[in-house]
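REQUEST FORM: STRUCTURE PREDICTION
Request ID: SP-0412
Submitted by: Lab K.M.
Chain count: 1
Length (residues): 135
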Amino acid sequence: MPLFIWNSSYSVNVKRFDADHQQLFNIINELHEGMKAGHGKDVMHDVLAKLLHYTERHFTAEEAVMKDLGYMQLPAHIEQHRKFTDKIKEVADQYKAGAAGLSVDMLDFLTKWLSQHIMAIDKQYSEFMNAKGVA
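STATUS: Completed
RESULT:
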């Protein structure tokens, strides 16, 4: 059973960003399932690659829309994205160096990201974007 199941409470009311966030749920669930099966270290390579691709694509798109609409919180949002990306790159470097126990730390980090970023910070742009015609 997945650790996280998408439901409307996670929605930011912007379809393309909700779809992106659902992909992040899938990545987190992939890591969780691998860990439950005792293969956390084995799935980390693919999970990290997917997370790096996700950050590049999703953050670029989200920031571009915010910039185009004149979202006042864009600088703070960009900073949050950079911290996330830096953490993923840091863990990827540790993984390449052979560090152990990374899957537990990564799952904890991603779980906090869902609650602190998507559920709090991303939801702040919902009304703003919807008022500008982005749905």
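NOTES: The chain has a mean pLDDT of 93.
Reviewed by: T.R.
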